[in-house]
Structures are given as structure tokens and as C-alpha cells.
Design goal:
It comes from Hermanssonia centrifuga. It holds the Pfam family F-box-like. This is F-box domain-containing protein. There is one protein chain. With 76 residues, this protein is mostly helical. The chain has four helices and two strands. A two-stranded antiparallel sheet has the order 1-2. A hairpin with a 4-residue loop joins strand 1 and strand 2. The relative contact order is 0.10.
């Protein structure tokens, strides 16, 4: 029996026991394998982000968009 004739459930059962690194490699084999492995790869997705507060570092009040008093130049 050729591999492409295997039931999708069989692939899913196999891939559920494979490491994330190997799943990533398997997802590159074919469109079908990608469709099976991607949900397994991203079943626990954690997104972390941070917003740098460059406005305050540059002397601006982020909430009002106004220059901070310490950043004003006198006589210019």
C-alpha cells in the first residue's frame, strides 16, 4: 500500500508522538503532511511581545504626545 493511501488518522496518530523539531521537518514533505502536522506544531502557541517605550526615552510623554519639560531646549 503506497504511503499516500494511508488514512489521515494513521498519520495523525504517528505525528502525535513525534518531537516538535521532527514535526517541523515532516511539515515540509508534502501538502498533506503539512495539513496534518501544523495543528500539532501550534497546539500550544505562546506569543510574547514587548513594546519599547521609545517616546519616554526620547523625552516625550507617550500619553499626551507632548515634550517632557526636561527635554525642552532654552533659547532655541
Amino acid at each position: 500500500m503506497p504511503v499516500h493511501n494511508f488514512p489521515v488518522e494513521l498519520f495523525y496518530a504517528i505525528f502525535a508522538r513525534v518531537s516538535k523539531q521532527d514535526l517541523a521537518s515532516c511539515s515540509l514533505v508534502s501538502w498533506l503532511w503539512q495539513q496534518i502536522t501544523l495543528p500539532l506544531l501550534f497546539e500550544k502557541l505562546c506569543i510574547r511581545y514587548s513594546v519599547p517605550n521609545e517616546a519616554i526615552e526620547e523625552g516625550y510623554e507617550a500619553s499626551e504626545g507632548k515634550a517632557h519639560p526636561s527635554s525642552r531646549r532654552e533659547g532655541l
